[in-house]
Design a protein that fits this description.
The protein is of the alpha+beta class. It has one helix and twelve strands, in the order H-E-E-E-E-E-E-E-E-E-E-E-E.
């Protein structure tokens, strides 16, 4: 009888204690889930914004579904020599040479370049023939061979269709695509694949990696801000869900579009 009464009393005590502990424990688990998805969403958003700040001017494009964001990522740039110096010296980039030009001097600091990169001059984007880096032929980009001193040598002579009013050039590494896939509940990053005239959704080749998991919804919109012609705006929306916890983050990235 005493053992039975002890068990019964202990059960009542344990039930009372569990009742008081249930809410704090539940609150802790909910806070942990919220912190987890918040960290995932914030990290993904910051990575996309960081990449977009390095986008080649006028290279950002979003597909019709708003699920794929693509751009050409740069590693640097500079100014090319457009005219000879007062002594008539200097390796000028010749836009009028019928066979093109294979090398030019850099005015100012030499950017870090390698043979896996390309030079782009005066990129205006889709719809501008000869000033669209995505074009398969007749484009405004050329592969780099070497750099020495203040001179960049191209892998082959190139006829650049248009000169830059500011004598600017950009060094691009490769194309980058961000894929929003709520079906697989991920945001995925693709890079180092071929540059294609038409946007591939998703691109083939290169490398890819998952940037965010537990994604319930996401999307991209791009406003090129053609009236100001200086900065475009990419709006990013990403929603994550873990159990009953749902978090939606929205952010913007300003893209310099001065070619």
């Amino acid at each position: 009888v005493e053992a039975t009464m002890t068990i019964a009393v202990a059960g009542i005590v344990f039930a009372a204690v569990a009742l008081f502990l249930q809410r704090p424990v539940q609150g802790y688990l909910e806070t942990t889930r919220r912190a987890e998805i918040s960290d995932i969403a914030d990290t993904a958003l910051r990575r996309m914004q960081r990449d977009l700040r390095l986008a080649l001017p006028n290279s950002v494009r979003v597909d019709a579904t708003g699920r794929y964001l693509e751009f050409l990522i740069t590693s640097g740039g500079g100014r090319y020599r457009g005219v000879a110096d007062q002594a008539g010296a200097g390796n000028v980039l010749d836009f009028a040479a019928p066979a093109g030009d294979a090398s030019f001097d850099v005015i100012g600091a030499m950017p870090s370049v390698s043979s896996s990169q390309q030079i782009v001059i005066f990129n205006l984007g889709t719809g501008f023939d000869g000033a669209d880096a995505y074009q398969a032929t007749g484009n405004n980009r050329a592969a780099i061979a070497t750099s020495s001193g203040s001179t960049i040598t191209l892998s082959a002579a190139k006829v650049f269709p248009y000169a830059s009013p500011g004598q600017r050039f950009h060094v691009i590494d490769h194309a980058v695509t961000y894929e929003c896939d709520p079906t697989s509940r991920v945001v995925r990053r693709y890079w180092n694949y071929g540059i294609n005239a038409s946007q591939s959704t998703p691109p083939t080749g290169g490398s890819n990696a998952v940037l965010a998991t537990q994604v319930s919804d996401c999307g991209f919109t791009y406003n090129p801000n053609e009236l100001l012609q200086r900065y475009g705006t990419v709006a990013i929306r990403i929603a994550l869900a873990n159990g009953d916890e749902i978090l939606t983050l929205q952010g913007q990235a300003h893209v310099p579009n001065i070619p």
